[in-house]
Design goal:
With 96 residues, the chain is an all-alpha fold. 75% of the residues lie in helices and 0% in strands. Keywords: Membrane, Transmembrane, Transmembrane helix.
């Protein structure tokens, strides 16, 4: 019976750190810009809530895309496991 190797993560640890740092720097820069914006407090509060909404919706979108990709990966792996089982159990020289 052949077994398929476990899927390899397409990202490295360095790429993950870079993505996290990039997100933190960009969110911090926008937050500082809104805080020091020469405008009334309600305008800064409105922009701050907008930043939070965009951030949470971006996380939700990324999670949804990841979940959809994971579902297709699991279905593919289940189909592959069924095919491997059928091939392993098949004996072309069996007399029936």
């Amino acid at each position: 019976m052949t077994s398929t190797p476990p899927p390899v993560s397409p990202t490295t640890a360095a790429f993950h750190v870079q993505a996290v740092l990039s997100f933190a720097v960009s969110l911090s820069a926008v937050a500082v810009a809104v805080i020091f914006l020469p405008a009334d407090g309600w305008v800064r509060a409105f922009l701050g809530l907008g930043i939070l909404y965009v951030t949470t919706s971006a996380f939700t979108l990324a999670k949804t895309i990841r979940d959809r990709q994971d579902v297709s990966t699991v279905v593919t792996r289940v189909d592959q496991a069924r095919m491997d089982k059928l091939l392993a159990e098949h004996d072309p020289f069996a007399v029936r």
